[in-house]
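chain below, 302 aa
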Amino acid sequence: MSQPDPVNPVPTVSAGRADIVRFAAFVAVLLGALLWSFWPTLTELYKDWQSDDNYSVGQLVPLAAIYLLWQERHALRGCTIRPCWWGIVLVLFAEAGRAFGLVYMYQSAERYAFVLAIIGVALLVCGTQVWRRVQWILLFLFLMVPLPGKIHNLISGPLQTHATTGAVYWLELLGNTVTREGNVMVLNGTVPIAVAEACSGLRMLTAFVVVGSVLAYSIRRPRWQKAMLVISTVPIAIACNLVRLVTTAMLFLHVGSEAAERFFHDFAGVTMMPLAIGLLLAELWIFSRLVLPEEQPAPAPA
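prediction:
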């Protein structure tokens, strides 16, 4: 049995393992600095998730991103990790955006800067090959940020108006007399129902976009079908919200206000999501029926 060379003793830790330890320490330091820098922004973002129902789905976006990364684990094992220094440019640009948000009291800029900083760190640490593989998952993280106030108002107001108009149309189609005053409907001249901002459907819209994006990324379909699936979440959200409003109004008329309010706040929120997923799956089925399989070339004559 040979003895180890006393001049060049065998190292206790292999070079590969030492590189992994140094790499993990480097990543931990970067993530720690990132969290420390954006901690006030993250705490305010969490408060908005808890207080604003329109954007409560944002807290599920990081969990969904982790799930999508787990789906890509086999493909990522074959990628070469080679740090790309262009990631520093993105991180510095994110810090500049955060400074802009702090100086001009623009909270959304700070939040979007945090997502941009995550993208920059991923590019810096893992390199371009890994970044190309997960770029859509990184962009997906932008959905966890609530819309800026001006964009929120531009979307919420028209959604509320369209929801009222659609509800009046379908209630009259069902044989009811509806008088509309702004966003207030008076059913059969006796039952007033106000379509408040919470009834605009923005909450469903944000939730369905997140669900549609996860579904589009998970399936194996052409890119145009995935894009159409995500875009279709907007009309699906409007349609589901309209179903909720009309059903609630009919319950107000024929059952009572207590049952209608219970349906609107409890049961409707549970049933609309399966309805939306069913519509998205039906859309995928239609896509599969529209696209014909490619014909195989005929064999050459002998």
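The first helix runs from residue 15 to 51. The chain has eleven helices and three strands.
thats it, cya
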